[in-house]
């Protein structure tokens, strides 16, 4: 809505003098009586509608009486709206305060920087401006608002304001212009580039806001009521670019150095391809053809950047004063060209990678692995890339996603998911019992529908950056916990039908609960591992958190063991009945379960080993323990376990149990005498080393089974790297444990002496083989 | 004016549209939310209006030959603002079209 336009229309409709004539009160010269319409913040891509003119307002001058009345108030007395709170008032911008009021002018200061947008430009200056625009565009992509980036361009401002009705009107000047002042070739080129750039922004905003979930904190979609050519189709922008390229290539209008000319053309070509790649309606059949040409255009831009000449006057901080803005004035965001360029490159390669999702096997587990790998990319994909991937992903909905996930985990070649179940029709007589298979189909439908939202939430979380992924999973597991509860009821019904059909031996007990619980446990593991990756936990909490992780994966492991047994039973049963094709399918399915099983036992063993390692370090006092005068261990434990407190079954250790496990020898400051006996003995270390060995073997098995078995075939490279990283962590832990053990041998006189010999360093994220597996480095002093 | 009377009179304008002219020749139009002894006024959903620079006005007058030629003020949404009493030059009350606001001026 054109809420902040008091364009000529309004002004001519209501000349100020008429207002005065109507009410006879003090005239309000020049101020159009347009009632403010509170519409800022609404999606700005809405259709522009003209609202019916409001009835004419009458204006009364109340200055004198108001002044008198307010001076009669007591000190500290407020006359206010009863719902208006102090908290709200803090957010008010103070007018005439230079720090708060973006419209404030210093004495003698002009509202705008004088910049003649139709003054001729040199080709080198054009390159300078184009590259600077690119820097601002990328700064915007990384989360800064348009007002501090692209909207500081006086050229873009001229194109967008006053709002043009047609593309023809979007010029660097408005109204008639003498022929000798008409913009030359360079300005026309700049105009075509700017138009396409603005359209790119429009596409980006539409794509990001089109997702179910996005955060303004990552990306600012505010357009300050400027309309970014939302209504205009993409091809007109491409035609403008084509025309510009043609005129440059023609070369008769202006003498330009060929290298400079080629540099400009490269930028225009890039913009053209980039615009097509961002197009909201780009064809899915050729989706893999959009990004490669964009990427091919990048290098010529980078190598010719130095040809450009900066034009500082083309950008002005003061444009903010004219933008609808409820925030204080903020400085322009300066991003170096090299940084901007690497962001751009990242955006393009992430786009190219995201497109690969279309070529994956249509299997939700493959998609899940892809999402996970995409979120793990370094550097973290930009918000646009994530929205781009999710848009592609959620278009694919021909397969019922929870259904095929269910099939992979708990229903190998099962009667329950036999498609013919859905083909049966209910008996004509409603009093007659429905066929068993139809009842199965209904129960599964009921569950799949119920699971839909939880599944969508899970994927939405996977589509976020890693930090938010961890936080969102904390909420997602609550939904899955509820789902698990509900699954129990459906399972009861399902088992009853199965019992009536006499096929109990073909179905794993409580299949839906098993499936839901497995997913939930997987998420809890990821939450804890992401917590380590993001340094949420302090080193003295590592022992407890890894212990918790091991208990979660122990449960997952047990669950998977029953599933695998079921797969084996099914296979032998099928072989008995000579259903060899089905038996083969079950066996293939069992690969996935085996891979999961090994992974779970690897996580269990490695985290157990790490827990033991860190407990030892705590007793040796090689890990700093900050003094925390205002909390108790129990409260801290409760805080860490907060996301898991409400889960059923209970996943966390009761506090006394936890204490018993991480403090086996009493307080770290005053351990009992058995500690040193044990530390010098074999058995203590044999335990830890046994776990490391177990973990190493388990992950080696996972690796051997391969990405395909883990249903990560589409991201084999990333998956392999992740597994390799964990394996390397196992090896590193073995080395460090040996180091501690040696140090204990030297420390004849107790932990004090050990501390004089060795120190422990906790590696930062870059220094780890795998983000979630923190292996402290033991070094000699 | 007595305190009670003043409070009652001012309270009438809470939630009503005011236009506040500031010392730097801008005008803020919005809903009054709060005021105090120093005549500081908080406006919600406010717009800022600003006259065009002098040379633009002069040009408009010259071009049309009409000394009261209309010119376009620029306006923008600024949301919740507090206008300090010291910078207020004029306060206007904007009555809605029906004229039945029941406010005692």
Automatic annotation (TrEMBL), chain A:
It comes from the Eukaryota. Residues 1-42 are annotated as: Disordered. Residues 369-658 form the NAA35-like TPR repeats domain. It is found in: Cytoplasm. Coiled coil: none annotated. GO terms for cellular component: NatC complex. Pfam families: Mak10, TPR_NAA35. Transmembrane segments: none annotated. It comes from Polyplosphaeria fusca. Keywords: Cytoplasm. Belongs to the MAK10 family. This is Mak10-domain-containing protein. InterPro entries: NAA35-like_N, Naa35_N, TPR_NAA35. The lineage of its organism: Eukaryota, Fungi, Dikarya, Ascomycota, Pezizomycotina. PANTHER family: GLUCOSE REPRESSIBLE PROTEIN MAK10 (PTHR21373), N-ALPHA-ACETYLTRANSFERASE 35, NATC AUXILIARY SUBUNIT (PTHR21373:SF0). Residues 76-235 form the NAA35-like N-terminal domain.
UniProtKB/TrEMBL annotation, chain B:
Residues 10-91 form the Sm domain. It holds the Pfam family LSM. CDD domains: LSMD1. It comes from the Eukaryota. GO terms for cellular component: NatC complex. PANTHER family: N-ALPHA-ACETYLTRANSFERASE 38, NATC AUXILIARY SUBUNIT (PTHR10701:SF5), SMALL NUCLEAR RIBONUCLEOPROTEIN-ASSOCIATED PROTEIN B AND N (PTHR10701). This is Sm domain-containing protein. The lineage of its organism: Eukaryota, Fungi, Dikarya, Ascomycota, Pezizomycotina.
């Amino acid at each position: 809505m054109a809420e902040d336009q008091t364009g000529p229309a309004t002004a001519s409709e209501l000349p100020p003098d008429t207002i005065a004539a109507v009410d006879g009160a003090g005239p309000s010269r020049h101020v159009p009586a347009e009632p403010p319409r509170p519409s800022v913040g609404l999606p700005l891509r809405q259709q522009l509608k003209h609202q019916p003119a409001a009835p004419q307002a009458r204006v009364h001058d109340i200055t004198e009486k108001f002044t008198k009345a307010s001076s009669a108030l007591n000190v500290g007395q407020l006359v206010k709206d009863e719902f208006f709170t102090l908290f709200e008032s803090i957010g008010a911008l103070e007018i005439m305060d230079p720090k708060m009021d973006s419209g404030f002018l210093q004495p003698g200061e002009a509202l705008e920087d004088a910049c003649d947008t139709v003054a001729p430009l040199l080709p080198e200056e054009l390159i300078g401006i184009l590259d600077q625009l690119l820097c601002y565009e990328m700064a915007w992509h990384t989360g800064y608002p348009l007002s501090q980036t692209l909207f500081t361009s006086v050229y873009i401002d001229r194109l967008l304001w006053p709002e043009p009705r047609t593309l023809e009107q979007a010029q660097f000047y408005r109204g008639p212009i003498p022929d000798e002042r008409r913009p030359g070739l360079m300005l026309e080129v700049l105009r075509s580039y700017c138009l396409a750039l603005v359209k790119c922004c429009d596409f980006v905003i539409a794509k990001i806001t089109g997702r179910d979930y996005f955060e303004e904190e990552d990306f600012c979609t505010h357009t300050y009521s400027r309309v970014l050519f939302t209504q205009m189709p993409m091809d007109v922008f491409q035609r403008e670019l084509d025309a510009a390229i043609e005129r440059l290539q023609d070369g008769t209008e202006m003498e330009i150095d060929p290298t400079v000319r080629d540099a400009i053309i490269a930028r225009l070509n890039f913009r053209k391809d980039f615009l097509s790649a961002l197009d909201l309606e780009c064809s899915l059949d050729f989706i893999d053809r959009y990004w490669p040409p964009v990427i091919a255009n990048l290098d010529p831009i980078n190598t010719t950047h130095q040809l450009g000449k900066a034009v500082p006057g083309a950008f002005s901080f003061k444009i903010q004063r004219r933008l609808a803005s409820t925030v204080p004035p903020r400085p322009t965001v300066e991003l170096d060209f090299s940084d901007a360029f690497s962001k751009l490159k990242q955006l393009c390669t992430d786009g190219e990678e995201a497109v690969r999702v279309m070529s994956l096997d249509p299997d939700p587990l493959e998609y899940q692995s892809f999402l996970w790998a995409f979120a793990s990319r370094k550097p973290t994909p930009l918000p646009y890339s994530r929205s781009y991937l999710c848009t592609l992903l959620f278009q694919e909905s021909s397969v019922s996603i929870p259904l095929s996930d269910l099939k992979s985990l708990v229903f190998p070649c099962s009667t329950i998911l036999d498609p013919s179940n859905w083909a049966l029709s209910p008996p004509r007589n409603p009093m007659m019992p429905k066929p068993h298979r139809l009842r199965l189909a209904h129960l599964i439908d009921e569950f799949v529908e119920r699971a839909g939202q939880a599944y969508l939430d899970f994927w939405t979380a996977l589509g976020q950056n890693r930090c938010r992924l961890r936080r969102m999973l904390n909420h997602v597991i609550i939904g899955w916990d509820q789902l698990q509860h509900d699954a129990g009821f459906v399972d009861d019904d399902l088992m009853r039908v199965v019992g009536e059909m006499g096929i109990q031996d073909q179905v794993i007990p409580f299949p839906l609960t098993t499936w839901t619980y497995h997913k939930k446990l997987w998420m809890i593991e990821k939450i804890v591992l992401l917590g380590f990756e993001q340094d949420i936990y302090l080193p003295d909490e590592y022992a407890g958190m890894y212990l918790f992780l091991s208990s979660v994966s122990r449960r997952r492991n047990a669950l998977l063991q029953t599933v695998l047994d079921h797969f084996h039973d099914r296979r032998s049963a099928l072989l008995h009945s000579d259903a060899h094709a089905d038996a083969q399918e079950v066996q293939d399915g069992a690969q996935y379960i085996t891979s999961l099983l090994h992974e779970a036992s690897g996580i269990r063993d490695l985290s157990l080993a790490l827990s033991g390692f860190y407990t030892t370090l705590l007793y040796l006092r090689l890990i700093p323990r900050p003094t925390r005068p205002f909390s108790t261990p129990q409260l801290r434990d409760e805080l860490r376990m907060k996301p898991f407190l409400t889960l059923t079954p209970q996943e966390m250790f009761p506090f006394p149990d936890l204490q018993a496990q991480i403090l086996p020898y009493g307080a770290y400051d005053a351990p009992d005498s058995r500690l040193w006996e044990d530390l010098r003995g074999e058995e203590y270390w044999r335990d830890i080393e046994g776990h490391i060995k177990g973990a190493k073997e388990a992950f080696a098995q996972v690796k051997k089974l391969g990405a395909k078995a883990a249903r990560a075939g589409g991201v084999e490279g990333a998956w392999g790297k992740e597994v390799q990283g964990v394996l390397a962590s196992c090896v590193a832990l073995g080395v460090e444990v040996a180091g501690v053990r040696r140090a204990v041998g030297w420390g004849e006189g107790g932990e004090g002496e050990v501390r004089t010999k060795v120190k422990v360093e906790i590696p930062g994220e870059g220094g780890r083989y795998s983000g979630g597996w923190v292996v402290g480095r033991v070094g000699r002093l | 004016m007595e305190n009670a009377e003043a409070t009652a009179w001012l309270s009438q304008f809470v939630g009503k549209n005011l236009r506040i002219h500031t010392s730097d020749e801008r005008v803020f139009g919005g809903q009054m939310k709060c005021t105090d002894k120093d005549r500081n006024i908080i406006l919600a959903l406010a717009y800022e209006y600003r006259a065009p620079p002098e040379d633009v006005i002069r040009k408009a007058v010259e071009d049309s030959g009409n000394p009261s030629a209309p010119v376009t003020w620029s306006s923008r949404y600024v949301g919740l603002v507090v206008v300090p009493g010291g910078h207020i030059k004029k306060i206007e009350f904007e009555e809605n079209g029906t004229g039945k606001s029941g406010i005692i001026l």
